[in-house]
Design a protein that fits this description.
By secondary structure, the chain is of the alpha+beta class. 22% of the residues lie in helices and 35% in strands. The protein is built from 9 helices and 20 strands.
Length: 340
Amino acid sequence: MPRSLLATAAVAAGIALVVAAALALAGALDENGSPPPPGASAQGGAVSGRAVDRVRGGMALVTASRGGSGSGFMIDTAGFILTARHLVREAGAISVRAEGASGPIRAELVGSDPSTDIAVLKIPRDDARALQPLRLASEGNDARLGEAVVAVGTPFGLGGMITAGVVSALDQKVGAIDGVIATDAETGAGNAGGPLVAGSGDVVGLNLRGRRSTGFAVPADTVRDVAERIETNGDLRVPYLGMATATLTPGLAELLGLDVEHGLLVRSVAPGGPADRAGLRGARRGRPAGDVVTAVDGKAVREPRDAQRAVSDRRPGQQVVVLAVRGRKKLRLRLRLGRY
């Protein structure tokens, strides 16, 4: 083969590798499409003991008579407690124990959301005095790449646990849950439903069950939004879009050679699901960049949770319009929402 052709082939192979790597890291790039600086993990340092002390007073051991037990934490003085839905989905009687309480407290299941594995419990206001509400990170101040965090489990006096680490990726998909924080602070049965805490003591996420040495958490902004809607409406009947997405940044768009700078890069679609039936395409071998969704039901989308919020007031079975870009082609697709 002529030397010029060998050089061209090498360049093409290099581009393919870069694009593949870019897709793999789509949830681990900053807002400019660049990876975190070297040593970001070390710069984060260890989460101080003081930060853990700030949350332990709000922790609860949640036990369901027809489920299991796990963690929860109180978020206000009215007695609302957040936990993982899978712990209380078929709960029967639910009780919580806390370090400041003299015994078990009967809890009511207010509602849950299958799309995020979040459930909201309520204990009597008088009993709530035994716990101290934890503070969710303010809107827009979710976990950052390389930030030191600790996943906290049930109160230490009740066999609790903590695991410390750093945020390793954002906007991940875990099962049917989108927009998830990934950390190397492993989250197992003991701290599922508990808080993911930053060094400030703020709660930046609600822990999900992890796998191997990786922990997962739902971001604080999503937790706040879901909790408020459950408190108001009870169980959420969440419509299902059937696609896994990642935030498209200008830097990533340039790397992938896309004509749009913002939107949701479709990583994959559930076979036979709503997005698949609507005609959306994800990435695959030979096509490293999937479609880019720019709007759902008339609302612009930039982060995975934006798509779910756009249809939060819709019902399964209803149709919505999805605007997307495929290469240089603009698409207007009708998507019939499914059910989780």
